Amino acid sequence: MTGRDVYVKALSIINERDSQGEWHSDTADYEKNAHELINILVSKLWCDDCIVRGIPIEDWRYTLEDISCLDEELSIHSAFLPALSFALASLLIHDEDRERADYYYKLFRDTQASLVRNFARANHTAIKDVYS
Fold this sequence. Notes:
This protein is mostly helical. The protein is built from five helices and no strands. It has helices at residues 3-13, 27-44, 46-53, 81-92, 98-122.
């Protein structure tokens, strides 16, 4: 999954295509800062990425690498693509439409929580009975 994958999905969420399927002219402004916004969002999801990958949170050696352009691969688990897309959509339209931005951010938080909950449940293991 690349930064561009997240960016294109975010633009689709906020409906930035015209009737001919072309991107609106203001998307060039969005693209300038998109990779930095994605880096911020990915860093916010470090702990959740540890849970999804089954990496102990205490292991500070595990890091998520920043990207310098949208065409680079993200180091976060690909399961976070929907959540990252909602969050980026929220940040891109925050100044234009606060109500929609808040709605997309809520979708981000819900998607993130659901993902972590599902992976955490899937990674449970049996506890050894020391009293037997």
